[in-house]
């Protein structure tokens, strides 16, 4: 079954948009068509959180709430979901939601421009968790900027929710919403509006048939990179194939030696699984954009952008990950070490997509990864370093080192690895090896960091690794 309309719930009412413009952002739709102006526009690039909305989705007969940036999400992605905007939080009797009440009580708002975004981020935290510690609160609002109140009163408001009754209007309405969501379960969508086409298949078979018969399309996953063509470059994307609803692309499978992840799995789902095997991978992902970005952004999208500052890329390089690539009639496996060609260029051909990524589980190795950026939260890396050591009897048996932000592509430091391999684990080995990073890496200077700073940091991260391995302690600043 194919539909050309987008059906979703606006809180508890079914809405249908027939043949929408596939390039229209949800933010634009909310403000100009629903005429609800509580949701604000700040940056139009996912960076400030003023446009935060919450989407409710059916997961295992329950509702999962996700905060997202409506400025960089297109209208068709509402299909089959519940859209909640700040106006929906006030009850029909005009009573504030507990999150709004807490913001008032703790003076969490001054000019108010950022407030609806904070309220929606905290609402999603409130609904998805039973208690709220500092770490969870800081993570939940890491994608929301406030320029006048400051964060302390907002954090106090969030902490006070621990003492609030968790039964709100949405809890009372839950069964009704679940029923409605089941009624509007998404079908394949095909939209042709003016000269724009949008296709959202539900399974891999339908995905392959559209790839077979078409060319010149753009795959869309979380849209946290692609949508900026519309919102920042002010251009159109004429033909979109949305991968987000393809069920075979959203999975995590763990076997004895590998973790395999579907390319369109949201990063937020992946971070909780990878934590068990590589805690530093998790720590870097926790500082990847914000919750809003990780709720939609995918690992497949991160790899396909081939950005030199893509955070997962040096990590996947040092873990020797494999990429499963498919087209309508072919299937192949490439080592990620052979995948990046040049600045934002990969070996993917036009009608090929990434199906999944296989990450080897080096159970005996020591794995470390560090992200260096100007700001702790919601910032792009200046340098990201990733280190995978096999050490036996105080000797380095095998080593894989990779950096992001240090060349036109994320890159292995092979000259440095060669010096370290088969050497004793001591400071002299590392002191000697760090100078070879100058052979491996050729950073540029930009607004994030000078090239001298980048090289120095890359060397220091290697030495930090030595100190941590040698002392068997973490030397981290929180
Ligand atoms: C506010 C903000 C903060 C950010 N912070 C970070 C950060 O801290 N670290 C970081 O690394 N990045 C960051 N990014 C960049 C962005 O989140 C990543 O590049 C993201 O991983 C892209 O994934 P996506 O699913 O959103 O991809 P999309 O935007 O949907 O797609 C990106 C590209 O990949 C292609 N593509 C997507 N999936 C596939 C597939 N399965 N097969 C083939 N091609 C595919 C698309 O056609 C497109 O060309 C940030 C972005 C924003 C807006
Ligand atoms: S307007 Fe800034 S994140 Fe959307
Ligand atoms: S209250 Fe003014 S920007 Fe936050």
Q: Any overview of this molecule?
A:
The chain has helices at 26-33, 98-105, 115-128, 134-140, 152-160, 169-172, 174-183, 204-213, 228-231, 267-274, 279-286, 291-296, 299-305, 312-318, 414-420, 427-434, 437-440, 451-471; strands at residues 2-3, 5-10, 13-18, 52-59, 62-69, 82-84, 188-193, 196-200, 218-220, 239-242, 252-254, 258-262, 322-326, 331-335, 340-342, 345-346, 353-360, 366-372, 383-392, 395-404, 411-412. The chain has 478 residues and is α+β, with helices and mostly antiparallel strands. Strands 1-7-8-10-9 form a five-stranded mixed sheet, with no helix packed on it. The chain is built from 18 helices and 21 strands. The N and C termini lie far apart (51 Å). It binds flavin-adenine dinucleotide (FAD) and FE2/S2 (inorganic) cluster (2 copies). The site of one FE2/S2 (inorganic) cluster has 12 residues, from loops.
Topology of helices and strands:
Blueprint: E1 2-3, E2 5-10, E3 13-18, H1 26-33, E4 52-59, E5 62-69, E6 82-84, H2 98-105, H3 115-128, H4 134-140, H5 152-160, H6 169-172, H7 174-183, E7 188-193, E8 196-200, H8 204-213, E9 218-220, H9 228-231, E10 239-242, E11 252-254, E12 258-262, H10 267-274, H11 279-286, H12 291-296, H13 299-305, H14 312-318, E13 322-326, E14 331-335, E15 340-342, E16 345-346, E17 353-360, E18 366-372, E19 383-392, E20 395-404, E21 411-412, H15 414-420, H16 427-434, H17 437-440, H18 451-471
Helix pairs in contact: 2-5, 10-11, 15-16, 16-18
This protein binds flavin-adenine dinucleotide (FAD) and FE2/S2 (inorganic) cluster (2 copies).
């Amino acid at each position: 079954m194919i539909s050309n309309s987008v059906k979703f719930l606006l809180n508890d009412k079914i809405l249908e948009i027939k043949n929408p413009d596939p390039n229209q952002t949800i933010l634009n739709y909310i403000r100009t068509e629903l005429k609800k102006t509580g949701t604000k526009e700040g940056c139009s690039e996912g960076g400030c959180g003023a446009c935060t909305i919450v989407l409710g989705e059916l997961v295992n007969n329950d509702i999962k709430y996700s905060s997202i940036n409506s400025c960089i999400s297109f209208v068709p992605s509402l299909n089959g979901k519940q859209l909640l905007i700040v106006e929906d939080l006030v009850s029909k009797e005009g009573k504030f939601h507990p999150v709004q009440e807490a913001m008032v009580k703790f003076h969490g708002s001054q000019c108010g421009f950022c407030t609806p975004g904070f309220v929606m981020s905290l609402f999603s935290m409130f609904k998805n968790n039973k208690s709220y510690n500092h770490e969870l609160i800081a993570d939940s609002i890491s994608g929301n900027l406030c320029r006048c109140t400051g964060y302390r009163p907002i954090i106090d408001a969030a902490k006070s929710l621990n003492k609030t009754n968790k039964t709100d209007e949405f809890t009372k309405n839950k069964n009704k919403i679940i029923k409605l969501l089941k009624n509007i379960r998404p079908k394949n969508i095909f939209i042709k509006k003016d000269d724009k086409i949008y296709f959202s298949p539900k399974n891999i078979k339908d995905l392959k048939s559209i790839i077979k018969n078409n060319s010149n399309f753009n795959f869309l996953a979380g849209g946290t990179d692609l949508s900026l063509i519309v919102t920042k470059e002010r251009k159109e994307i004429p033909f979109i194939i949305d991968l987000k609803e393809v069920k075979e692309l959203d999975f995590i499978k763990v076997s004895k030696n590998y973790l395999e992840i579907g390319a369109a799995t949201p990063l937020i789902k992946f971070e909780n699984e990878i934590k068990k095997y590589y805690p530093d991978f998790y720590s870097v992902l926790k500082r990847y954009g914000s919750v809003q970005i990780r709720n939609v952004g995918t690992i497949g999208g991160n790899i396909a952008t081939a950005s030199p500052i893509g955070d997962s890329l040096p990590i996947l390089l040092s873990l020797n990950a494999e990429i499963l690539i498919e087209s309508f009639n072919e299937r192949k496996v490439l080592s990620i070490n052979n995948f990046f060609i040049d600045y934002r260029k990969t070996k993917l051909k036009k009608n090929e997509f990434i199906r999944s990524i296989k990450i080897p589980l080096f159970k005996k190795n020591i794995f470390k990864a560090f992200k260096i950026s100007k700001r702790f939260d919601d910032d792009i890396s200046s340098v990201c370093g990733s280190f995978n050591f096999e050490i036996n009897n105080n000797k380095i048996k095998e080593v894989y080192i990779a950096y992001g932000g240090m060349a036109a592509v994320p890159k292995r430091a092979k000259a440095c690895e060669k010096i370290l391999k088969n050497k004793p684990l001591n400071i002299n080995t590392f002191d000697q090896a760090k100078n070879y990073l100058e052979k491996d890496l050729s950073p540029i200077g930009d607004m994030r960091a000078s090239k001298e700073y980048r090289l120095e940091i890359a060397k220091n991260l290697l030495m930090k690794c030595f100190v941590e391995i040698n002392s068997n302690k973490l030397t981290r600043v929180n």
